Amino acid sequence: MRFGVLGPLAVWTPSGDPVTVREARVRALLASLLVAPGRVVSADRLVDDLWGDALPANPSGALQTLVSRLRRAIGADLVVHRRPGYLLDVPPDAVDSGRFAELTGRARRTTDPGALAALLAEALGLWRGEAFAGFADEPFASTAAAALEEQRLVAWEDYAGARLQLGDHAVLAGELGELIEGHPLRERLRAAHLRALHGAGRTTEALDSYRKLRRLLRDELGLEPGAELTALQQEMLRPEPPAPARRKAPPPPSQAPLPAPQTELVGRDDAVADVRALLGTHRLVTLTGPGGVGKTRLALEVARAEDEVCLVELAGLPRETTVDGLADVVAAALGIRDGARPQSSVERLADALRGRRLLLVLDNCEHVVEPVAALVPLVLPASDVRVLATSREPLDVSIEHLWEVPPLEVPPPGAPLADVQRSGAVRLFAVRAAAASPGFALSDENAETIATICRRVDGIPLAIELASARVRVLGTAELAERLNDRFAVLTGGPRDAPPRQRTLRAVLDWSWELLTAAERTVLRRLAVFADGCTLAAAEALCSGDGVRHAEVLDLLARLVDRSLVVVSHSADGPRYGLLESVSAYGERQLEPQELARLRHAHAAYYTSLAEEAAEHLHGPEQQRWLSRLDTETGNLRRALGDGEFVSRLARAMAWYWFLRGRLTEARRATEAAGSAVVAAWHTGFRLLTGEPVDSRTALRLRDAIADPCERAMAGWFLGYAATRFGDMPVGEELIRAALAEFEDLDDSWGVAAALSVRAVQRHVRGDLKWSTVDAERSLALFRETCDHWGRVQACAVLGRLAEIAGDYPAAAAWQREGVELAEELALWPDAAMRWSELGRIALLEGDHDRADELHERGRALAVEHGDSAGQEFAEVGLALSARRRGRFAEAETLLRPWLEWNRRFEADNGAALILAELGFAAEQRGDADAAFDLHEQGLAAARRTGDPRAVALALEGLAGVRLLAGQPGRAKGLLGAAARLRESAGAPLPPCERGDVDRIEKALHGELPGSDRELQECR
After folding, report:
1. CB 938 within 8 A of CB 957
2. Phi, psi of 197 (to 5 degrees)
């Protein structure tokens, strides 16, 4: 795919055919990703770009929906999820802006006017209108659009200069006329236009144009034309200007060449292009980032493309260096000698740079940031010098443009092998490890281990290089294990590197030494958090012992500026976090007593947060608090390690774990139960994860709880779990008791939850009328309490009931409402089930392709979130479709693993359906013995469920087997019994199952009256 932003947003196939992205918000998402193609845009930033203050109810779910639609439009492999957001995975030249930057960069490096003009003509030919047309006024695109427009004008000015050198005056004068109208005050462009007019013999027009410009400058800005334009006017007024004498420009003072690169720069192609583009429009660019991220290496690579460049290494300067002292160091690097007249060092440097075209690289500014910040604005205005600085904190001057050097891209856990191999961090590790250990190579076997190592060192290039050097003696597996003591392992850097870059500890020591005592206190205390923290949490835990509560914000800001604290954004505002290596370093600075006190305070803080959240997870604030707990998952897991708070925290988190489908985590966390309440929840989680449990135990656990509110809630949860995967009669008893208790407590939410489960129980028993009554009342109560999770449950039951009644449009409407609510709350297990339910409806309607598409969607969600029940439901649906299309082997392959999975539970509903389907497949393959055995097993399981529809399905299967065995009378009787059972249950034969009965009935050639005796036996 190719993409265009130099004009209206456009997408083309590799062959050049346009691709339509119709929906406006999906186009906006694509535009936002194209602002920085190939780089991660955080989910928070995308949500802000797309909705601003008018946020949808569930921003993350809405964003994921848009991402899915964009993937369908341009290809799923191009829109890639990378923490903390998404990126458009395309090379720079796949976007016209990237191609434009490449061509203009090549043009700047050539001195031949013909080649320069050709390259710039190709670059300017890429433009189809204004950059990001249609989005240029959006905050996310305005800066990028303005920068691209500035680059276009600079390219036009360079292009005009080359054309003038080639003598192409007449044509150029016409081409520049319209451009001048749009940018009348741009003096360099105006000068090129005047020269073109003058050279084409249109001097009078040129002089008129000069006078118009002069009036415009006076009227609008109160200024006169610059020296170049004034000299050009005088030149045009001379009747026969003499040809200027050619003089060679004086050679620049001698200066040391850039150090030759010792190794290849890996994973930074986009970064090099970005910084070079910035230097085309900004006089001062500062590369910031933590120690070891590769600021110097990137700066040197950027500088190699320049005609004249000077590197000034500042790391060796003392912290007390003055502005004049710094000016002397820069002058010495440039080869500038003392002048004859008395001047300050700064004045001498400014005079020497006047008229020079130079890139000045100031490396390692962080410890002398104040004199650098004072010097640069003094020397830049009078020169054509550009400055590229590297620093762990900004210079904080008005002309500065910051560019934060990111760590190298690391693949997320479980990423496909191809993504691991493309990762910049993994490629760097592989290259350096091969150099240190001949014969080493990235392989299928070691790729995930290497990816883990790169994640553990945060993608920091220096840490990766130090780690890769240890492969020779440790191997990758041992190296990954030993990174728990990273400061002992990541040592032994090259002897020719500065001492501060030979070990990971030395890199961080350099930063630590530049901090004040208060900054050090906050930094080391931040190490107690996992995955960052809010400002409120930082203020609570980082204050004390000389750091006032009110000071913490300012100290955090200073640590952010020094590239030691990373800021991200969440629904609760900014979050402050540490890279893993910085966190490990900070923890080492904590004394044992301080560390123990902090960990205890951390557990207390997050236990209180979880208990506050638990009060809001039923009702209108459900979504906000779910998102907040999502963000704090790392801290909450860490807090579970404190024995004093584990029972309280586990109880507070139980409902959150259930809603998010984190059942295994919940089961582990509640295992060491400190109360009867937690023990009851633990048993419910065991049931839901398929662990065998004596269902009567649930009744004893419920009865052991004294608090009536906790007893009702725990009893409901146990009843819900027993209904799904346990003993249905026990589930019915528990829900009956919970409903009565909730009604006594006047708990509307609890009543609605109990009714939704009872509706399921009655639906399974075939009591469809009263199941409908319960489901409708449950939905009404959940709507009153504004609980979206509850609405999903009620919609699911109403959808299944409509499906049984043959009202497929209504069934689909209920399931769609459920999937929208589930996705809005990021209830992915529920969303997966609802997509598969829609697949079942499509199957009933005979649309097998649509059914497969919907079931695949449900399966993908279930697999992504580790939801075995959702995966089973989706794959059984795919098997139903495959069997009905005659793909018997495919159906059996899908069904067999899930038969064993279902047999682990006391509930037999799933096993009954699978046995019936396997029996039909065997029958249609002509294997009567296998079909008979499977349908007999299915009938036994169906009878245990008490569901008349399941029994009817097994009887219909046995009818087909009897017909194969040459027993038409028995087949008729079985079919008749099945029909009577379906009629009694109010569950007519759906179209997708009609085919099997039709097939048998046609073979029998006649109507089937049924057999009362066999029907009675079946009952």
Report:
1. yes
2. -60, -45
Number of CB atoms found within 10 A of residue 129's CB = 11
HEC sequence for 456-480? HCCCCHHHHHHHHCCHHHHHHHHHH
Which residues are registered as beta bridge partners of 18? 12
- Comparing CA positions, the residue from 276, 581, 104 lying closest to residue 287 is 276
Distance of CA 352 to the CA centre of its chain: 50
What is the residue-averaged pLDDT of the chain?
85
Sheet-wide strand order for 566-570: 533-534, 573-577, 566-570
- Which among 525, 14, 514 has a CA at the least distance from the CA of 290? 514
Residue 385, beta-bridge partner list = 358
Confidence of residue 246 (pLDDT cuts 50, 70, 90): very low
Non-local (6+) Cβ contacts of 703 within 8 A are none
pLDDT the model gives residue 989: 63
For residues 407 and 294, is the Cβ–Cβ distance under 8 A? no
User: Phi and psi (nearest 5°) for 573?
Assistant: 105, -165
Q: 784: which strand partners? A: none
Chain centroid offset of residue 387 CA: 34
**Residues 344-377: tens digit of each pLDDT:** 888 888 888 877 788 999 999 998 999 999 999 8
Nearest to 636 by CA among 623, 265, 660, 372: 660
Residue 209 neighbours by CB under 8 Å, 6+ apart: 180, 190, 193, 194, 197
In degrees, to the nearest 5, what angle opens at C-alpha 515 toward C-alphas 510 and 520? 105
Q: Encoding tokens for residue 6?
A: 């130099």
Longest dimension (CA), the chain: 124
pLDDT of residue 938: 85
The shares of helix, strand and coil residues in the chain, as percent rounded to the nearest 5, are 65, 5, 30
List the one residue out of 109, 160, 446 whose CA is nearest residue 304.
109
Q: How far is CA 433 from the centre of its chain?
A: 29
* Model confidence, pTM: 0.65
The sign of the dihedral angle between the CA atoms of 651, 587, 488, 444 is positive
Coil, helix or strand for 88? strand
Picking from 161, 199, 197, the residue whose alpha carbon sits closest to that of residue 212 is: 197
CA 326/CA 375 separation, integer angstroms:
8
Alpha-carbon gap, residue 368 to 324, rounded angstroms: 12
191, HSE (Cβ side, Cα atoms, 13 Å)? 17
The distance from CA 753 to its chain's CA centroid, rounded to whole angstroms, is: 34
* pLDDT tens readout for residues 597-619: 999 999 999 999 999 999 999 98
Helix axes 139-165, 113-124, angle to 10 degrees: 150
Determine contact, residues 652/644, Cβ cutoff 8 Å: no
The pair of three-digit structure tokens given for residue 205, joined into one six-digit string: 């027009």
Strands (E), 392-535: 400-404, 533-534
Where helices occur in 551-706 by DSSP H, the ranges are 552-561, 580-588, 592-614, 622-631, 633-639, 646-660, 663-669, 676-688, 695-703
pLDDT value at residue 444:
86
277 backbone φψ class: left, alpha, beta (φ>0; ψ -120 to 50) = alpha
The whole-angstrom distance between residue 599's C-alpha and the CA centroid of its chain comes to: 30
Alpha-carbon gap, residue 586 to 647, rounded angstroms = 29
Q: pLDDT per residue over 484-529, tens digit each?
A: 877 777 776 555 555 555 677 888 887 888 899 999 999 999 999 9
φ, ψ for residue 41, nearest 5 deg: -110, 125
**How far is 985 from 947, CA to CA, in rounded Å?**
9
* 580 phi-psi bin (left φ>0, alpha ψ -120 to 50, beta other): alpha
Most confident range, picked from 23-27, 237-241, 393-397, 928-932: 393-397
